[in-house]
Amino acid sequence: LLISPPPLHLSGVNVTSQAQVVRGTVGKEALLSVSYSSSSSDKPVIKWQLKRDKVKPVTVVQSIGTDIIGNLRPEYRNRILVFENGSLLLHNLQLSDEGAYEVEISITDDTFTGEHYIELTVDVPVSKPYIQMMASSVLEYSEYFNLHCSHDNGTKPVYGWLKGGKVLSNDSRLLLSHDQKVLTISRVLMSDDDVYICTVENPISNMKSIPVKLTVYRRSSLYIILSTGGIFLLITLVTVCACWKPSNQSEISIPATYAPVLPPSSNRTERPIWSAPRRYPRSPSPLAQPLPQPLPGPPLRPIRSPAHSPGSSPRSFSPIRKVRTPVGIPTSHLPVEAECTDPSDQDHCPSQH
Fold first, then answer.
1. Would you say the pTM of this structure is higher than 0.90?
2. Which superfamily does 14-123 belong to?
3. Given a cut of 80, is residue 227 above it in pLDDT?
4. Which H, E and C letters describe 255-293, residue by residue?
């Protein structure tokens, strides 16, 4: 009789995890939770490694049970804690902690080593976004009106837009940039008069901006008429202005009083020669004429001045005007009438008629 040997029982460690991806926040902690099963009661040997693309794996920690073996790397000191089930706790997360973590659990009596991967992401929460635009109102049929969405803090931001509470997407008029930060309305219509909200999110947070109201004003019918024929009118005006030349005969007439007297072209100098102002003869001064002599006649009686009442004192009045010496003219410059000593002398004595 042939007796077959008993089948060999191959034992190993089975590692499982409830989460394949863990989201972490900078400055906080992250738990990479795993569990294992084994037929052995010995303490497991646990090893955690960080793997990144095109980078050599980095050993984070190695332990027997919860007892860490060897020295930790400087960036992990005072930040690592290993649990009995093989889980790893990271304190004070940093952006450099992000990556794929591989755990290996082995037991001396077991033949196979258990392995498992957990992806860890580390981010900074996003701040509240805000909308920027040139104005809160716009005229109908305006072209390329832009709304910009911005935020100050946060990693891996993903932008979005809401119009009237509904999610916006690209269409023929409402255009979103490749990162969806800018919303462009290619041609504004009255239906664009609505409330707009900008959203931003990342793996650990999401925020909404304050609602912004965009007001659209309707264009008048006159604008529509002018807009259709405005280009043709503009071309016509430009053509007329370009072809028009002023007439050479139309010159500005200058009054003769102010017209410059120009010499012939051959003798013309750089500056025009202006004509001297017209001079008028001055009338002789009455002071230069001899005073008329009074004619002989009956003696004149004094007359009361009409400006005084009968009760006032009488004032003598003479019809002969007394000539006073002009103010400011020396008496030596005034004409002096020659005395007539001989009436028969016609040169010095005027004739008496």
1. no
2. Immunoglobulins (2.60.40.10)
3. no
4. CCCCCCECCCCCCCCCCCECCCCCCCCCCCCHHHCCCCC
